[in-house]
């Protein structure tokens, strides 16, 4: 979660362009945290939080690496202030992890048989018509070999 905004924080040039989107995602994050979790499995209650965190990090990543719309200074500011997950972005830059949903899916200590999550398996390797859903984040497939984005 982003740090508390104080008057001492100096925002870099270009911040006013991305601030409305980041504030909107922050508002959605607060709503997801306060959402009623009755009737859901324990793991399902945090899935919206994972999705919003992924969306916010992907937004900053796309602005800097794909569209080249923000400066390095603004990008570093977003990482340092917690607006994006720098560890997740570091994985996105590596081959095979371009569509990674969360870091828990690649941590082998969290899975049976010390392997990666089932959502990391390409869909063409699974049974036809089988719907896969990650227990950690609710992802339905983030393998880089999948054709659909």
UniProtKB/TrEMBL annotation:
<dbReference type="GO" id="GO:0005681">
    <property type="term" value="C:spliceosomal complex"/>
</dbReference>
<dbReference type="InterPro" id="IPR001748">
    <property type="entry name" value="BUD31"/>
</dbReference>
<comment type="similarity">
    <text>Belongs to the BUD31 (G10) family.</text>
</comment>
<keyword id="KW-0539">Nucleus</keyword>
<dbReference type="GO" id="GO:0000398">
    <property type="term" value="P:mRNA splicing, via spliceosome"/>
</dbReference>
<protein>
    <recommendedName>
        <fullName>G10 protein</fullName>
    </recommendedName>
</protein>
<dbReference type="InterPro" id="IPR018230">
    <property type="entry name" value="BUD31/G10-rel_CS"/>
</dbReference>
<dbReference type="Pfam" id="PF01125">
    <property type="entry name" value="BUD31"/>
</dbReference>
């Amino acid at each position: 979660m982003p740090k508390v905004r104080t008057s001492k924080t100096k925002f870099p040039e270009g911040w006013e362009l991305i601030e409305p989107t980041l504030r909107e995602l922050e508002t959605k994050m607060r709503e997801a945290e306060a959402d009623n979790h009755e009737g859901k499995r324990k793991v399902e209650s945090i899935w919206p939080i994972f999705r919003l965190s992924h969306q916010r990090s992907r937004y900053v990543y796309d602005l800097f690496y794909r569209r080249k719309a923000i400066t390095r200074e603004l990008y570093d500011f977003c990482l340092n202030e917690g607006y994006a997950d720098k560890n997740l972005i570091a994985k996105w830059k590596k081959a095979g992890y371009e569509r990674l949903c969360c870091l828990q899916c690649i941590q082998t200590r969290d899975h049976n048989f010390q392997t990666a999550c089932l959502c990391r398996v390409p869909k063409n390797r699974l049974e036809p018509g089988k719907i896969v859903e990650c227990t950690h984040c609710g992802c339905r497939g983030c393998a880089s070999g999948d054709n659909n984005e």
